[in-house]
Amino acid sequence: MGTLLNCIERIPSLIKDILLSYPNNFEHLSTLKGKVKKIVFVASGSSYNAAFTSKAFLERECGLDIDVIYPNVFSKNTRIDNRNILYVFVSQSGTTKLVYENLERANELGATTLAITKDKNTPIAKKAMYFIEMGCKEEEYRYRTIGFSTTVTSCWLLGCYLSSNDLYKELLKVTDSLTNIITASLNWYDLNKFELMKRSTVLFTGSDSLWPIGIEADIKFMEMIPYMTKTYE
Fold it and tell me: What mean pLDDT, rounded, does the chain reach?
């Protein structure tokens, strides 16, 4: 088993694999192409933050209406609107109890449902009408880094496919930039690690898509160090 850093270093190649498989890995959704006008993501934790990160791109570039809802909030909704709406249930493990229960309920109410999980054999993947593989493979650590990044990529590509948007070609540039960002981050840490050791509180700020990324960083700092953290838009 490698280190957490080894997991992070695998992210660019895994994202590239997803992009090089496109659009073949989405062709089973061909009956939805051009028909879906809105996507409702139901997810929690890092999966919620990943879907939230994709929201701005999907709205601006793909022309889709996007809602991102926690499962405990979604469970309070008594009405499912199935007019040109795709309900997407996201869980890396594919076993999140509340996500599964909400997916089951959505199916019973006649919703068009899709799951994004680590593989097709998870309970959530089997329960949904449609399935997209997250592309994260087996991530060794429960502090999700690979799964967050590949979920954002999968959500972006879902929007590109449904709206016939060819911006996915631009996403191929992401893999090279990520490698450079990892190197730059490690260099920055080496220069500042002793200052960081003096700190016990971190504030994150970000606008647009960077806000949910700040929220995800907030979670990681609390889980892994731990620091007291807060995120602002």
Answer: 93
